[in-house]
Records
---
Amino acid sequence: MFEAVIFDWDGTLADTRKAILVSFHKALSQAHCDISDEFIERRIGIGAAETFREILRVQNVWFDDVLIRKLVDLKIQAEIDLSDEIKLFPGATELLEILQGKVKLGLASMNNRQVIDHLLKTTNTKRFFDVVLTAEEVSKPKPSPEGFLKCALKLAIKPKNCVVVEDSIFGVEAAKSAEMGCIAVLTGVYSRSEVKKAKPDVIVDSLKETDSVHKFIFE
């Protein structure tokens, strides 16, 4: 039995894909730069700053830390402006209600604090989490295990007694590197075969599969 469950946010608990794409494109327009939706989608989870760096490198656009900070700030505000369009995935609230009080609950997201705090408020989910960790507290993005390990430390639970719920291959790899259990949910942009290669302990199609999730956590 695990003592804590650590959730990712984007693509795992909340369907933020459209808002993320629009906010990235809006910010990039200020740098007179564009990139495909797929390029952005397959980097959701590594953090906005790192995503902007990768985009600008690929597009051969000069940048420095000042520009990256400006782009991140633009992306944050744009995503907050689109918050009414962001919904929790089916089964998310029900699963959190099932788990609350039975295990400690953490949220470890590579999105920014302003965005996460705002969305936790608008979705009425802040009440579920004992710890909320965001990109500002992490120096190395996923697949580094740093974020999950810091979350476990804040929860005062040993990594081996934590299970991570993730949608991205970066997140699954980070969870396994942290030596935590991992449930992968196929609500992100990755196929089952792609996710399977990252070797999660359990794969579910959605958070509505509460029996499978519950069984892995509590057995």
Note: The radius of gyration is 17 Å.
---
Amino acid sequence: MERLLISELIAWKALDQRKPVLLDGARQTGKTYLIEKCFGSGYFRQVIKLDFLANPQLSDIFKENLNPEAILLNIQLALNVDFDPRQDLVFFDEIGECQRALDSLKFFAEARPDLYICASGSNIGLIDSFPVGKVHMLELFPLSFEEFLMASGQDMLVDQYRDMARQQLVHNKLWEQLLDYYFVGGMPEVVQAWFEHNDSGINARCRNITRLHGDLITGYARDFGKYAGKVNAQHIEKVFNNVPQQLSKYMNDSVNRFRFSGVIEKKKGYMDLYGPIEWLEKSKLISKCYPVDTPKSPLAAYKKENRFKLFFMDVGLLGHMLGLNYAEHKAQNFAYKGYLAENFVQNELRCLGYYPTYAWERREAEIEFLYKNASGDIIPVEVKSGQRTQAKSLKSYMQQYHPDKTVKLVGAAGGTQNQTDLVWPVYYSAMLDVL
């Protein structure tokens, strides 16, 4: 499957001098595949890969010293390969399993900026010692909706999506794909299975997706114990399971702030849950959106650390944890569908690199997202899961702050009354960066 992030890797390769790439992201989002298969195989003579999770003994390569020349010699001897610095990519996979390898990136950046060095790892945010300023940081998330369309093989539909086509026929096809995406999500293994078996019966396809989702959730739970210790793992898992539950409590109104009480026994406040929440956020499994009551730049100045919404990293896994089946997604008749659209927009913004996100709250009014564009303008973004486009909160916001532009994301083809009050179908969330 193609990933849009490969364009950043290609641009990195074209530089005369470069820092090592460090690709971060949650487990099973396709980091290894992107670097080794998509990028490495397509743009280099060979990929010299060191997988520290599969082969812990490779850590011995870095024991004596961190001089790049010594490391490169040790790699060639250990793997019995010849290395051409002009044509080969050196890939440190699961680098978080070898602190010395992670430390070596600093020395590669300083002494050998001509080399092509890539590293990837899950839980990078949890590592204590980190070569700040000495790596080119990239993040990989589950497939965005655009990447999901690319994986479907419908090239003409992808072109229509990128052109933001608004014809009803195009909308019908994109809406159908969006509802599939709500069920499948963007985890690469799951997306691949969905499209590879599209000639199977729908029930068999759905059972397979449900099984894969279950395997992924089980795998994440095992990681909690491996990387956080037994007691902490129990608390992390409780928060992890509670995020979907809290999201689904709200009808078609906006998602409310995360409630700390009742998640873990005898723990009621923000500081009681701070550790598990931060662990999950740093692992890229959840993300935050901060409601503010003053929509002015810089938005970060108006946020409160203990007031936030929590969203799930993948809408497919979110639906699985709530027991939503394919038929419910397609019918869109379950009572609590608003949170799913809001979570979708949050994830699309994250893929754009827009994080953390912000919302606006004032008394009974709320705007789901505040988007700050390249010019510094703050644009209110209202999210409506259905076809109704009435937005009382948006009207209230406009009366108070008179924004130059507003956006409503809706479950319909939408329409633009003028150049300032935009109504888009929700699947065009990623197009906010053109405003």
Note: The chain has two domains: 6-139, 145-434.
